[in-house]
Structures are given as C-alpha cells and as structure tokens.
Amino acid sequence: xxxxxxxxxxxxxxxxxxxxxxxxxxxxxxxxxxxxxxxxxxxxxxxxxxxxxxxxxxxxxxxxxxxxxxxxxxxxxxxxxxxxxxxxxxxxxxxxxxxxxxxxxxxxxxxxxxxxxxxxxxxxxxxxxxxxxxxxxxxxxxxxxxxxxxxxxxxxxxxxxxxxxxxxxxxxxxxxxxxxxxxxxxxxxxxxxxxxxxxxxxxxxxxxxxxxxxxxxxxxxxxxxxxxxxxxxxxxxxxxxxxxxxxxxxxxxxxxxxxxxxxxxxxxxxxxxxxxxxxxxxxxxxxxxxxxxxxxxxxxxxxxxxxxxxxxxxxxxxxxxxxxxxxxxxxxxxxxxxxxxxxxxxxxxxxxxxxxxxxxxxxxxxxxxxxxxxxxxxxxxxxxxxxxxxxxxxxxxxxxxxxxxxxxxxxxxxxxxxxxxxxxxxxxxxxxxxxxxxxxxxxxxxxxxxxxxxxxxxxxxxxxxxxxxxxxxxxxxxxxxxxxxxxxxxxxxxxxxxxxxxxxxxxxxxxxxxxxxxxxxxxxxxxxxxxxxxxxxxxxxxxxxxxxxxxxxxxxxxxxxxxxxxxxxxxxxxxxxxxxxxxxxxxxxxxxxxxxxxxxxxxxxxxxxxxxxxxxxxxxxx
Length: 622
What we know:
Layout: H1 4-12, H2 30-33, H3 45-48, H4 50-57, H5 63-66, H6 118-121, H7 129-134, E1 206-207, E2 216-217, H8 280-283, H9 335-338, H10 354-357, H11 407-410, H12 426-429, E3 432-433, E4 436-440, H13 449-452, H14 462-467, H15 509-512, E5 515-517, E6 523-525, H16 534-537, H17 587-590, E7 594-597, E8 600-603, H18 612-615
Antiparallel strand pairs: 1-2, 3-4, 5-6, 7-8
C-alpha cells in the first residue's frame, strides 16, 4: 500500500514541473496550484505571484492589457505552461523586442526614450530595494518588473531636490533642455512686463560646489519681494519709497508720476491730465528738483504754433481759451464762441471741422478767411448757369440738397409743371447734357415733348399732325395729355380708314396694332400699317373653303362684327335651300365632315351630300 501512490503518480501527472516550480513536484502539492473539483481547470497562480496580483489590482504594467474579463488565474495558462520538465521555461514570448508595443505596459516610449535599448532601463540597478522584496524571480536580470516611472529612478536629479520629482512640469522626453513647458505663473513669482523677456539664467544663477555638493542652478529661495536683490539702485538711496512708486516692470524708463511718493499737487504747478504723464526730466533739466521751473505761461515750455496770431486778441494769447491740458488737438473753441465772430456758424456749418475752412498750414494757418459769398469756400456746381442769382434762392445752410426750389417757383419759369410732370423727379429732366457735359443742365432751348421723351411711334404721325388745322391740338397732345400717357380717349378712330363699330369698339388697341421689335431692343407699335381686312387680324378657321380665286374670303357673308356666330347666312342661296322640317335642323346635324388640315381638324362645308339616303336611314322595320 505504501507503494501505491508512487506507482500511481505517473498515471495522472502531465510531467515534472519547471525549475522555478520544482519544489511543488509530487501529488501532495497539486492543490497548491490547482483547485480541486470537476468542470473546467482552475488555478491558484496569483496566490503565489503576489507581484503580478498587485499590478493587476492597480492596473499597472503589461499584464492588465493582456487579460480579458473574467478570473485572471484562469488566463495565466495562455502564456505560461508547466509540467514540461525542469529545463522548460514557462514563459511564452513570441514577439521580438524590436516589435514590442511598449504602450501596453502603460508607459509609452516617446522622445529620447524611444531610442533606448531594453537593457538600458530593465536591469537590476534600476530595481528599488522595496520592489526587490516582492519579486519571486531571484535572477533579477531575467525580470521586467520592479521599475518605477519616476524620472529619478533612472536619471540623476540635477536640481538636487529643489523642485520635487515631477520632472514633466518643465521637461519633455524629446529634448531635456527644452523647458518651455514650465509656466512661471504657477510659481510664487509671476513674470510680467519686461521680466517675461528676461533669460532664466539672469535670475537663476549657478551655485558653486560646496560641502561636497555638486554645483547646481538655484531655483528656490530667491528673494523677490524687493527690486534691490536683482537690480542696482540708480538713485543711491535718495528715495525711501519702493521702486514701484515711480517705475513699472514693463519699462524702467520713463518713470511714472502717478502713485509716486512725491506729491506734485503740493507744488505751485499740480500735474494734471497730459502733464501727469510727462517724464520728470522733460521739465527738470538737472538733478536739482528744487530749482524753479517757469510755468505761468504755456509759451514757457511750448512753442506758439499759431505764430503770434492771437497775441493781440482779447486774452493776450492765453492758450487756455481754446486748449486744455487734456488734449492740445481737441480745441475747446465751440460753435457758441464762433457765434461772437463776424461769421456765426449755423445749419450744416456748425458741424464742419475747423480744418475744412482753416486749412492746416502750421504757423501759416489762417483763422480770418473770406466769407461774403458761398463760392469763397464752395465750388459752383452749376457752372455759372445762375451767375446773377445768389445761392440762397434755392439752397440753405441746413443742407444743400434737396433744393428749396418749389413748384410755385417753377410755375414762374418758361415751363410750368402740370399734370404728371408735377410728380416727376427733378433729376429726370435736369441731367448732364452736351451743353453742360460736366454738370447738370437747368436751362433748355427746346421745350417740346421730343426734347425729353423718345417718339415711340417712330414718326408715324408727323405727316398727319402737320395736316391738322391750326385750331386742333398739335404734337403729342393730339392723342395724349399730361395727366397720363396711356389715356388716349380724345383720339377719334372714326377719322381713320377703319372706323370701330359693334364688337370692334371693345377690342384692346394692341390686339390690332402689333408691336414690332427694333434693332435697339425697343418695340414700335404700328398704327398706319394696321390691317383693315378680317384676314389681317383673324385666322381663317375654314381652311380656305370659301376663298374665291385669289381673293380673300368674304367673312361678312355669314358673320358680322357684332357677334361671330352665324347670323346672316342665307341658305336659300345655296344649291340646297332649307324648307319644311329642314329649316329647323341644326347646322351640325348635316355638316359633320371633318378633315385634318395643317395638323388640326377642320369642319368641311363643301361638299355636303344632298340625297336623303346620306342623312336618313332607308331600312324599313316591320
């Protein structure tokens, strides 16, 4: 019995374990790795491999990216197998190191790291003592575990612990010396003004080696509460106030007067408006700030740009009459002040900039200018058409356009405006013409309709109008009036070759008087050449059945201009007079023969059968 287990061992064991697991060989250790019971195989890998269990729990390293959902112990066998003998290595690694995607480990290799060989990082020197205790692999040259993602685990801290271990705050893996990532605003001293452009080494100087410590650049412990630790006091202690009282970090020069320790308002000349921003040395030429400075008159410091024009006027050339310390160019001389001159500014003149009349010419600028006539300043846009009349007859200083020339004033001219002419805009008649090619014409020699309007009839009525009696209206007025062009009610059609009677009286003019296109794109309505026969306007719907020889058919035989339907046709004059019951038969009951002519059906009246059998049935029903 004692030999039974030994004899049975080879029957169910797949083989001896690898060298790493050799201590677990034998049937008494199966449950150290396997979970008993039927069903699928279950393992206890993570009960021993705590270093892997910790990485899976923290989602660190390569293993979390390789495992799928479910129990991790059951998936270990995908890459690690055993029972293959003592010399078997229970790790399946079928990917070359050159092809391995390091992103699966949670630590992608970029920048300078991408060029490194695996052994430069994965070596026993990089494994911390704390990590060594948790790694089951005794030969640390054969493991990839135990490394830290902290830069200091591989790189020496050149800053000697001044700025902590988060190197990525300032550096990138692509270029260690590139520190543009660092944001100085996150430090205790925010860089503003000219400090933003100052090289780092101006403030962060190198500390020489001392007491065994290596030379290094100083980044912490730099005094910055006052300017003096970095900047030399050019005033040699003359001012007790801080530098910021007169200077800013944007630019040392010029110094500012605002917030200065020296209160200039206590002097005889308080600095106001623009004077407040003037540099001290502009007025104080020497370092003796107590030496008197002339300030009673502006001319003591400023040049008289008006060249003495106002020295003899009221005020004796006091600049304050027109200017202030707030702005020299913005004059305080108002329209109300101008009203006291010989030329008060009214209307649109009140808004005209001074420089429009007083042309800037430096010291030669004139402030007394001619103003008697409008043309002293304004160009005559009418080119002397109204040379003998003042501009005020039509225009005002409130606005030049539109003119105040009214209909009442126009009625006093050679062409009073009546009818539709009253509503015509001035610019429709008064345009540029050959006699005034550069300006608008207001005086005309020809006042006839043709002078402004194009003859749409192309001269068709010139001969007829000339033949009218002198008592009759002449020109366009023979048919039209000034109220509306389309009103031609005064035209009497009975005086023409074609008087309008019956149904023709209600026909629109353009149905007979057709418009023909002209070469210029316009159209001309033909009045004199309008047709006078029926065929001239109406289509022959009978397709020439009633045409005699070369003459046009006489429509009046059957129709009249009162109504189109047959009213006057006398059937007794045909070869088949209608008598008896035939007199009551409708035309369409006998005239049924239709023939297609030019693509449309035409009722044919000739020939129509005359025998009874053609219209009446001959069969007798018993």
